[in-house]
Amino acid sequence: MTKPTKAISINTGGGDAPGLNAVIQSVVYAASHLGWKVYGIREGYDGLLFPDRYPDGGLVELNPDGVEGIGRMGGTILGSTNRGNPFRALEKAPDGTLREVDKSDLVIEAFRKHGIDSHIAVGGDGSLTIALELHRKGLHVVGVPKTIDNDLRSTVATFGFSSAVSFATECIDRLHTTAQAHRRIMVVEVMGRYAGWIALHCGIAGEADAILIPEIPYDIQKVAEALKKKICVVQPYAIVVVAEGAKTAGGDVTVKSREPGRVERLGGIGDIVAKELGSLTGYEARAVVLGHLLRGGSPNAMDRILGLGFGAAAINALKEGKDGVMVALNPPRIEYVPLEQAVSGIKTVPFDGDLVTAARALNISFGD
Description:
This protein has helices at 20-33, 46-49, 104-113, 125-136, 161-182, 197-205, 220-230, 269-281, 301-319, 339-342, 354-361, and strands at 7-12, 37-41, 59-62, 89-92, 98-101, 118-123, 141-145, 185-190, 210-212, 238-243, 255-257, 265-266, 285-289, 325-330, 333-338. It is of the alpha/beta class. It folds into two domains: 7-159 and 299-331, Rossmann fold (3-Layer(aba) Sandwich), CATH 3.40.50; 164-296 and 350-361, 3-Layer(aba) Sandwich (Rossmann fold). The strands form four sheets. The chain has a seven-stranded mixed beta sheet with strand order 3-2-1-6-7-14-15, with helices on both faces. Strands 9-10-8-13 form a four-stranded parallel beta sheet, sandwiched between helices. The radius of gyration is 22 Å and the shape is elongated.
C-alpha cells in the first residue's frame, strides 16, 4: 500500500524581513525531495480564517517551479500581517466597536479540513508565541525565527538583521557627507523595538559619535557634552544613532500609537533627541527616520544563506518527527530548541558586552 503524501503548510507573520522568500523557497525544495506537498497560507493565518478575501482561497499550493529564484527577492510572496493573532482576532460588535475574539479553534479546524499534517511558522516572538499556543491545542508545529531586530534569545542570529544593518550603515555613510557640508548634527532613528542591536551595529560600522539604545538609558546633557567635545574644525559635525526604543534614565519609550489587536508602535524619539541636542549644543540638528526602509529590498548574502538554511532545517525537523520546536543558529550548527524556550524573553544588548566595550574604546558616547 502506498504511503499517503504528507501535506505541510507555511506562513509568514509579523513585520516583513529580507530572507523570508529564501525560507519559503528552501522549504518547498526540501519538501519536494521527500514527496511532500506544501501549502502557503496568505497573510499569517488570515488565509485560513478569511478565505473569501483571496482569489486563491487563502491557501495556495507551492511547488519548486513556482518558487524558483524567489530567495533573492525581498518581502514575502505569501504576504504578512501584524494583526493576525487568531487568539485575539478583531471583529465588530453589534454597537459598531471592535472587540477581540478567540478564533483559534477555527484555525485548527481549517488545518484539519485541508488535511495539513504539520505547520512551519516563520516569524518573530509574537508570531512564534501564536505558533506555540496553536501547538498546545494540538497542531504539529516547527518555528523559524525571523526578525530584523535580532532579539530572539535562543538563536545567535535571525535573518533580516544583517541586511537591515548593512542598509542602515550605508545611509549613515551618506549622512556623514551632508552633515559635514552643513555643519550639522544628524540624528538617525532606526528600528529595533526594545533591543538595540541594529543601532549598536550600524552605529559602530558607520562611525557614529553617539549611540542611544534601550538597554543603556541616556542623559541628554551627557550626550550634548560629548558631542561638543568632538565637533571641531577637523570634524565640524556629528552623527547620533538612536534606537526607536531608546529612553532617558527614569523615562519610558516614545510611542506613536496603540491600536487594538497589534503591538504598540514605537517612534518619534529621533525628533525629540534632535530638538534637544540642537538647543543644548547650539548646532543645527536634523532627524532622519529610516523606518521601514530597513525591512525592504533584497536580502544580502548572509541573510539568504541563513534563510535557506533555516528552511531546510525546518523540513529536517519534521522529517525527524520533532514538534513544538524552533530552528536556531548555534554556530557552526543549526539546532532545535523548544518553542516555549524560544519565546520566553527577548535578547537584549548586554551593557557590558564586547561590542559596547569596543564602542566606548572608539570614543562613542552612550549618554550614560
